[in-house]
Design brief:
Structural class of chain A: mainly alpha
CATH architecture of chain A: Orthogonal Bundle
Structural class of chain B: mainly alpha
CATH topology of chain A: ABC transporter involved in vitamin B12 uptake, BtuC
Shape of chain A: globular
Helix content of chain B: 55-70%
Shape of chain B: globular
Number of domains of chain B: 2
Number of strands of chain B: 6
CATH topology of the largest domain in chain B: ABC transporter involved in vitamin B12 uptake, BtuC
Number of helices of chain A: 11
Strand content of chain B: under 5%
Number of domains of chain A: 1
Radius of gyration of chain A: 20 Å
Largest sheet of chain B: 2 strands, antiparallel
Number of helices of chain B: 13
Largest sheet of chain A: 2 strands, antiparallel
Radius of gyration of chain B: 21 Å
CATH class of the largest domain in chain B: Mainly Alpha
Helix content of chain A: over 70%
Distance between the termini of chain A: 50 Å
CATH architecture of the largest domain in chain B: Orthogonal Bundle
Strand order of the largest sheet of chain B: 1-2
Strand order of the largest sheet of chain A: 1-4
Order of helices and strands of chain A: HHHHEEEHHHHEHHH
CATH class of chain A: Mainly Alpha
Oligomer: heterodimer
Order of helices and strands of chain B: HHHHEEHHEEEEHHHHHHH
Chain lengths: 309, 350
């Protein structure tokens, strides 16, 4: 039982990071119908900028408390990522808005390759360790271990997701975003500046990605220039699992994928009589995805969408 | 480009055969020209470009003709490569001849195509993309881990000492001297691969103008309307998956025998994406465009590899930026720029 609970806790921590990243995918997809392959790299840039900012602030002439350093470093990461995402959209996606469907997919892939390699030039090939900014404490709860970092990750994620839902559903900007997702043409007839809304969507998504990058590097206490690609892939899977274009779906899909992965990794050996080890955790995750999509072709919470050509 | 093409094939003053003869001669002497001007490595690069062209034409059936976005296409290439590797290497002690393995690889990859196609028939657009991506990863993870409890694929180490193609007892990887010209392994394989590529092109052209090809295009344009017109969308889509996969399987077999070594590392997601880039960048749905895109993307990284280090030394005095990452940065930039300037590809279908 305690192993199960432990896997559930690990899954929730992993899943809340996936959910944050998946939100960025799903918001862009909802409005542009585009798989933003470069989103994972934005997560990586967020983590890298955070670590750089921490070392600059910590080694500077000013003596700052650790919490001040963290807050400033996170803000720097969000700021840099937002600007980055703004320019990615401007350069690689906006000129292609009426192009054939696969053209922006290729520019997105190009952007991803570009960002990953520029990051390697700036931050090098080696793994960067997360600095000791706070005391890690471990609590035992019904036989399973929880650290304060893990609690913090889940808490922050929930808070951010709740405030995002509030922004989307309660504010004027949110209404404009929902209208644009329904139909950009009609939204612009109603006085919505579609271009601004799209830029804003990218900026919000990048902000979430920056925070997710910080959280994931805090969780594994490591960051690397190639961390974004796989994370982005998993998050995109989560977004599809939940029903792409649907915000609640992305959150549900993210948490679910995290749980599937960690429970799968823990139990897949017993299930298959030792034939498959924990190396197969991704197989397990993708199989669940395929099974879900066979029965619900538009994901768990997705609605029937018309085909785009 | 197309004007030049028309001049050879469609112009009234130049009979068609002049163009054919010219192109045939050019293709025959190409490896020797390449070797003389740029060295033997480039003949190998040319060979790999031919393999990629076969692969891209197979993907073009799925993505370009039938409009089914496949992000895990490299799985079929892997299936073909491992089929060849298992049937002609010391791994199981089997050494089947190439004329037996090619059809087996064709069928096995086709079966995997149906295996992927069957559960995904109801999915549309990007949902299909993520499932195919997952399928590609599943195949790779299995190849990576099937070394225990029973050793089948040799795990991450891969399979070594794969037999080359042998025609009448003559191994193609050895150097032969014919008419005073030295035919290295790369040269011999060039002709085999060229033959296979031309056969693939022929099949693709015939498919495109067939009843099946028109059915694929109808599904790509509007699946519901195609169904209303009496097209059995289920069978036609499955056929697209199966045929695309079989082409990939043959290309994979060639890759295994040419390289003499396979490991799961050659079949990562990035490779699927690369092949997709070749198809889209060249001009989706247009066979000649796809071949152009393949050759550009297969050769460009190699050119950039040669260029990115030395140019820095000459211009800036020393190597400032890691040549390997500079190469990939330029590659990414090229992808973005080409798509921005020509959103429907370099040589789109008209």
């Amino acid at each position: 039982m305690d192993i199960f609970l432990q896997q559930v806790i690990n899954g929730l921590v992993l899943g809340s990071v996936y959910a944050l990243v998946a939100l960025g995918y799903t918001m862009v997809y909802g409005i542009l119908g585009l798989i933003n392959f470069a989103h994972g790299e934005v997560v990586m840039v967020g983590a890298m900028v955070f670590l750089t900012a921490v070392s600059v602030l910590g080694g500077g002439p000013l003596v700052l408390s650790n919490s001040t350093i963290i807050v400033f470093a996170v803000l720097t990461a969000i700021f840099v990522c937002s600007i980055l995402a703004f320019f990615i959209e401007r350069i690689a996606y906006r000129p292609l808005r009426n192009a054939p469907r696969l053209a922006p997919l290729i520019t997105a892939i190009g952007m991803s390759i570009l960002l990953q390699n520029i990051a390697m030039m700036i931050w090098g090939r080696q793994y960067r360790t997360f600095p000791e900014l706070f005391q890690i404490e471990s609590y035992t709860f019904a036989g399973a271990n929880v650290t304060n970092v893990q609690l913090f990750i889940v808490g922050i994620s929930i808070a951010i997701m709740a405030s995002l839902l509030a922004v989307i559903h309660l504010t004027k900007v949110g209404r404009a975003m929902r209208a644009t997702a329904e139909s950009p043409q009609i939204a612009s007839l109603m006085g919505v500046n579609v271009n601004t809304v799209i830029s804003l969507t990218f900026i919000i998504g990048a902000g979430l990605a920056a925070i997710a990058g910080v959280l994931v590097s805090a969780n594994y206490s490591i960051a690397h220039y190639s961390m974004g690609f796989i994370l982005g892939l998993k998050a995109f899977t989560a977004a599809v699992l939940g029903g792409i274009g649907n915000l609640t779906g992305a959150m549900v899909g993210g948490i679910l994928l995290g749980l599937i992965e960690s429970i799968g990794a823990g139990y897949i050996g017993d299930l298959t009589g030792g034939f498959m080890g924990s190396h197969y955790q991704d197989v397990f995750a993708f199989l669940v995805l395929i099974i879900v999509l066979v029965f619900r072709p538009t994901g768990i919470m997705g609605e029937r969408v018309a085909d785009r050509s | 480009m197309s004007k030049l093409f028309l001049m050879f094939f469609g112009g009234r003053k130049n009979p068609v055969w002049v163009g054919y003869v010219f192109i045939t001669v050019a293709l025959i002497i190409l490896p020797f020209l390449v070797e003389a001007s740029m060295g033997r490595t480039w003949v190998r690069i040319l060979d790999f470009a031919l393999i990629y062209a076969m692969l891209a034409l197979g993907l073009n059936i799925v993505v370009g003709f039938a409009g089914l976005l496949d992000l895990g296409y490299i799985a079929f290439y892997a299936v073909g490569a491992y089929t060849w590797a298992l049937l002609a290497s010391p791994q199981f002690g089997l050494h089947l001849p190439f004329w037996a393995i090619i059809p087996i690889g064709f069928v096995v990859a086709g079966i995997f195509g149906v295996l992927l196609g069957a559960p995904t028939l109801r999915l549309r657009g990007d949902y299909l993309a993520i499932v195919t991506l997952g399928f590609g990863e599943i195949v790779r993870i299995f190849l990576n881990n099937l070394d225990h409890p029973i050793n089948i694929t040799n795990g991450p180490v891969g399979i070594n000492l794969i037999d080359p193609i042998q025609i009448a007892g003559v191994s193609l990887t050895k150097s032969h001297e014919i008419l005073g010209l030295e035919f290295s392994g790369a040269h011999s394989y060039y002709y085999v691969l060229l033959f296979l590529l031309l056969a693939t092109v022929f099949v693709c052209i015939r498919l495109e103008n067939s009843r099946l090809g028109r059915a694929w295009v109808a599904i790509r344009e509007d699946e519901t309307a195609a169904q209303a017109m009496g097209i059995n969308t289920r069978n036609v889509k499955l056929l697209a998956f199966a045929m695309g996969a079989s082409f990939g399987g043959i290309a994979g077999g060639m890759f295994a025998s040419f390289q003499g070594f396979v490991s799961p590392e050659s079949f990562i997601l990035l490779e699927s994406i690369m092949v997709l880039c070749m198809v889209v960048l060249g001009g989706m749905g247009n066979i000649w465009g796809v071949i152009l895109g393949t050759f550009l993307l297969a050769i460009l990284p190699e050119v950039l590899r040669d260029v990115s280090g030395p140019i820095q030394e000459n211009v800036l005095g020393r190597v400032w930026l890691d040549p390997e990452s500079l190469r990939m940065v330029l590659f990414g930039l090229a992808l973005i720029l080409v798509m921005l300037l020509r959103p429907s590809g370099l040589w789109p279908k008209r």
